[in-house]
Amino acid sequence: MDTLSSTDHPGPVTPPPAEDRQGGPHKEHAVILLHGLCGSQLEMGSIPKQLKKAGCTVIPLNIDNYSAALTNPRVSPNWEEWCAVVESRVARLKEEFRTVSLCGLSMGATLALAVAARSKELLSVVLLSPVLQYDGWSVPWYWKLLTVVYDLGFRNWSYKESEPYGIKNFEMRRRVASALEKDGVAAVGAASIPARHLRAALRLIDFVKQSLPLVRTDTLIIHSIDDETASPRNAEQILQYINAEVRKVVWLGDCYHIITVDNEREIVTNETVMFIRRSIEMHGHEFSRKHLAHASPLKDRRG
Q1: Of the residues 136, 166, 244, 247, which has the fewest C-beta atoms closer than 10 A?
Q2: Mean pLDDT across the chain, nearest whole number?
């Protein structure tokens, strides 16, 4: 997140691709993937493929005025609507699957935390580069002034992504820059984020900060110590205040913010899959009983 650019006209909004369910209805465990703000599922790297190999059904979720293909810079989104979409999807999946987990990247991780604070239906959450404040080494000095500018009524602008694009790997960074220039979206997200969407994200962050003690589901955090967007303090704050009995953090030393496609992407994928599998193993019997009780209530035989 580096430079400011004007967006005085919204331009065409590309219709979203159909939701891609990877796996089948016979699977017992579903994982919802939440990409970053104004991003796409390209950001999730090899995680969907490996979760599917591990036996999970993968739900790459697209959200109105959150996902790149559904973003209109003239619309002021509400973070609670983003949460409602995820919560509704969780509720529907719980009718079909024994367990449901969330895996989010960047603001998608923050969104996953918000849902976890409001829901008791989740097996686990995986937080990849979670953001509670934009305090990384590449965040410009004027960042905090942008909310003042917005609240004064200047809202037809966007925050333009630039070097290093959240990626330490030079070759990957070169390819990302090319994709952003050509298509406006790449494995790091969109080329720019509208002001209205940034404001909604900051309100989401405010809610999550206050609600961390309500998070009790199994939690994995993977964060780079050299994250240029969100410093390690973000992960440390989450670990300190959530009330999950099972919580784990993995620190990375050779990547930046978009850890799913950077130098240590294999570690990120493997840790994500292993954590979800262990949660399934630890809680499998408990959720099986809940599932059976919900699906086959006992009949009253007293009459």
Answers
A1: 247
A2: 84
Residue pointed to by tokens 């240590």? 264
Cα-flanking dihedrals φ and ψ of residue 160, to 5°? -95, 130
Task: State both tokens at 230.
Answer: 């969100």
Q: Do residues 14 and 183 make contact, with C-beta atoms less than 8 angstroms apart?
A: no
| Main-chain phi, psi angles of 282, to 5 degrees | -70, -40
Specify burial of residue 300 (Cβ count, 10 A radius: 0-12, 13-18, 19+).
exposed
Long-range own/partner contacts, residues 9-16 (CB < 8 A, 24 or more apart): 10/72, 10/73, 10/74, 13/69, 13/70, 13/71, 13/72, 14/69, 15/69, 16/62, 16/67, 16/69, 16/70
Residue 85: Cβ-neighbour burial (10 angstroms; 0-12, 13-18, 19+):
middle
Q: Say what the pLDDT of residue 263 is.
A: 97
The backbone torsions φ and ψ at residue 118, rounded to the nearest 5 degrees and listed phi first, read -100, -10
Predicted confidence (pLDDT) per residue in 165-187, tens digit:
889 998 888 888 787 676 655 55
